[in-house]
Design a protein that fits this description.
There is one protein chain. By secondary structure, this protein is an alpha/beta fold. 24% of the residues lie in helices and 22% in strands. It contains six helices and 17 strands. Strands 1, 3, 4, 7, 8 and 9 form a six-stranded mixed β-sheet that branches. Helix 1 links the parallel strand 13 and strand 14. The longest helix has 22 residues. The protein is globular. The relative contact order is 0.12.
Length: 314
């Protein structure tokens, strides 16, 4: 099968493998070999109708051959094919230049085609809130573009200022996880997809925050690693920026300013660094990654939260 797309246009491919396992090694992946010979392994995400799906995009013209694999072996009966990238980009504005990256020398950002990018972001942590409609979000996005903004920072996961599973944490897609952090809810991510595409259509770069730091207490490293697997699988084909967690060394507020707070904050930071390493390991495009630091409590600078310079690009 051949899928024809424009440069950087995202194509979604699916496979009927079923799995209830929490082990990420039991998930299929999509292997894509570009016309330049570069092999990319795309992690798969849970599809709402069952099975798995993966997304792919490229600015390199030509045929990109793909096949599904599981545990390193081709999946018997899974359709292989080609994604043909041809024509010119359908994107307008800043996105017409491709995804952003840290430029050589590490002093500024640029697009894939070398065009400089000046980060001018607006913060909408609760952009998935049901308090704003899709139509209102489109209007707000258009207004920000007209004002010169080019990036929106939002949370796709457990939200700030609330504990997960309390009513104030509801989004247009409900919660990201089933109660007790028992299983990812694809319906949450389907709704997030819709709002991410509103930003992209407006010409805004999504800067995606995975959760707020203190949610690590309730969820644990394994859950947050799985959450980030889902985020990378869903959104890394788009021109995004990653923020592993908001205030990644900040305890829940009733633990602030206690004698044990510095040690507790350091432990949170260590756990988020583990999640950052896991997310970086599965992102074939190496989208820019950072962490939102915690003023006044524990580690302050991003580099103190995630000291491995291979995991923080900015």
């Amino acid at each position: 099968m051949t899928e024809q797309v424009r440069p950087h246009e995202v194509v979604e491919l699916s496979v009927g493998v079923q799995s209830e396992s929490r082990d990420l090694a039991d998930r299929p992946c999509l292997e894509v070999t570009g016309p330049d010979g570069l092999l990319r392994r795309r992690p798969a995400f849970l599809a709402s109708g069952g099975g798995f799906a993966a997304r792919y995009a490229s600015g390199v013209a030509g045929n990109h051959a793909y096949r599904w694999k599981l545990s390193g072996e081709p999946i018997v009966g899974a359709e292989a094919g080609v994604v043909e990238v041809t024509g010119t980009s359908a994107a307008t504005g800043v996105l017409a230049h491709g995804p952003i990256r840290v430029a050589g020398g590490g002093r500024h950002f640029e697009h894939e085609d070398g065009t400089p990018f000046l980060w001018l972001g607006d913060t909408w942590w609760h952009a998935l809130s049901p308090r704003i409609s899709d139509a209102d979000l489109r209007e707000l996005a258009a207004r920000r573009v007209a004002q010169g903004f080019n990036l929106i920072q939002l949370v796709i996961g457990p939200l700030p200022e609330v504990r997960e599973f309390e009513p104030r944490g509801q989004t247009v897609g409900g919660f990201a996880w089933e109660p007790g952090w028992s299983r990812i809810r694809p319906a949450f991510f389907d709704a997030a997809d819709r709002r991410i595409r509103i930003l992209l259509k407006a010409g805004l770069v999504p800067c995606i925050v995975g959760a707020w730091g203190y949610h690590m207490d309730d969820a644990g490293v394994d859950v947050m690693r799985t959450h980030w697997y889902e985020l990378v699988a869903r959104y890394s084909a788009y021109p995004v920026v990653w923020v592993i967690a908001g205030e990644a060394s900040l305890p829940w507020y009733d633990r602030l300013f206690q004698p044990e707070t510095p040690g507790y904050a350091a432990a949170l930071a260590t756990k988020w660094a583990q999640v950052a390493a896991a997310a970086r390991s599965i992102d074939p495009w190496h989208r820019p990654m950072t962490v939102h630091p915690s003023p006044g409590v524990g580690a302050y600078a991003s580099i103190d939260v995630v000291p491995d310079s291979d995991l923080t690009d900015l």
